[in-house]
Amino acid sequence: MRIIPAIDIIDGKCVRLSKGDYSTKKIYNENPLEVAKEFEASGIQYVHLVDLDGAKASHIVNYKVLEQIATRTNLSIDFGGGLKTDEDLKIAFESGAHQITGGSIAIKNPAMFKKWIATHGPKKIILGADANNEKVAISGWQEESKEELLPFIEKYITEGVKYVICTDIAKDGMLQGPSFDLYKKILDQCSDIKLIASGGISTFDELPKLAELGCEGTIIGKAIYENRISLKQLEQFILTTNN
Questions:
Q1: For residue 141, is pLDDT > 70?
Q2: CA angle 55, 23, 75 (to 5 degrees)
């Protein structure tokens, strides 16, 4: 299982929110590149970079941060937040994203999202399926759509999607443990996807459980920044699972 730390960006700074609420913003580092370099030094190879300003503005904003991390580390970056047009996508890939995550666009402009999958292939385009009470949430979680989570994922599997990031919003940033039951449900019904668990990770012991469920990756945010899970522990986990 891949370990994918999250770096969330507001005003070019590394922050975390609780349940996606912008008023709960806490700044952890003024310099996201420093954070990325620390991750890399601990043997981490992947990072989930979220442009929270972009999610609010509905267009890419913090691509300079993406460019910095891409040019000054060897991390493989999955970038999301506010990608709505072909131009946004072009900027993201040109700035060094290895993959992009599309969430709101998959609901609001499915034709565009399907075109991205067809053009760039399933290795490059991740479906962001963020859920509140098993309904898909969009626009930086400011809106809840009427789409049911599982049919939404299944629909995009038929379009060729392979990677899915699922965040249970009720869990995100709360350090109360991930949604094991929800992930099990998804993997039972959609066994051929690469599911990346996100939200609520609070202790190191949860990681082997997610791996056992069959999650392909897990995104860890606040637990790292609040020192609930140390980079040393993650380094050890990566070494053990890679051998």
A1: no
A2: 45
Coil, strand or helix: which one is 196?
strand
Q: Is the entire prediction scored with pTM above 0.90?
A: yes
- Band (pLDDT 50/70/90 cuts) for residue 61 is very high
Q: What is the DSSP letter of 168?
A: B
Distances (CA, A) of 148 to 28, 82, 135, 153, 189: 34, 22, 5, 9, 14
Give the per-residue SS3 of 113-132: HHHHHHHHCCCCEEEECCEE
Q: CA–CA separation, 145 vs 66, rounded Å? A: 29
φ, ψ of residue 77 to 5 degrees: the values are -105, 125
For the chain, report the end-to-end CA distance as a whole number of angstroms.
Answer: 12
Joined together, the tokens standing for residue 124 give: 């490059």
The residue type found at 10 is I
Residue pLDDT, tens place only, 72-94: 999 999 999 999 999 999 999 99
| Among 8, 88, 168, 172, the one annotated catalytic | 8
DSSP 8-class letter at 216: S
The single residue of 53, 88, 130, 168 carrying the catalytic annotation is 130
Residue 8 known to be catalytic: yes
> What confidence tens digit (pLDDT) does each residue in 182-203 have?
999 999 999 889 999 998 899 9
51 is catalytic: no
Residue 101 has pLDDT above 60, yes or no: yes
- DSSP classification of residue 181: H
**How far is Cα 228 from Cα 119, in angstroms, rounded to an integer?**
40
H/E segment holding residue 231: helix 231-242
